[in-house]
Write a structure and sequence with these properties.
It is built from 2 helices and 3 strands; from the N terminus they run E-H-E-E-H. The protein is of the alpha+beta class. It is globular. The structure holds iron/sulfur cluster (SF4) (2 copies). The site of one iron/sulfur cluster has 15 residues, from helix 1.
């Protein structure tokens, strides 16, 4: 599920935190969160994996990444929305 995050700097800390917390390795490829370039406008697109995809884990909504993000409130809001929408789908 992809969200627009205008305040995101693209630093990648969230993906490092996610992969280390869940897999014990600093590997963005394993992280549930991905930072994607936008064609225009401020910030980046943030994608949360809904299911395990190869090495990539599904986002559990644990919020471990939030503590490593400077615009943390914005990231926390996206995770809340991700969890809400996923529940809605059943
Ligand atoms: S909330 Fe999702 S993206 Fe963030 S650390 Fe937890 S599993 Fe990873
Ligand atoms: S969501 Fe936060 S931690 Fe992740 S790349 Fe963007 S600014 Fe960095």
């Amino acid at each position: 599920m992809v969200f627009d995050m205008p305040a995101c700097s693209g630093c990648g800390n969230c993906a490092m935190a996610c992969s280390f917390h869940h897999k014990g390795e600093f590997s963005p490829a394993m992280a549930a969160i991905s930072i994607l370039e936008k064609e225009d406008g401020r910030g980046f697109l943030i994608s949360f994996a809904e299911e395990n995809e190869g090495k990539k884990i599904a986002c559990t909504g644990c919020r471990e990444c939030v503590g490593q993000c400077h615009p943390s409130e914005e990231l926390a809001d996206l995770i809340k929305e991700f969890v809400r929408r996923r529940k809605e789908r059943g």
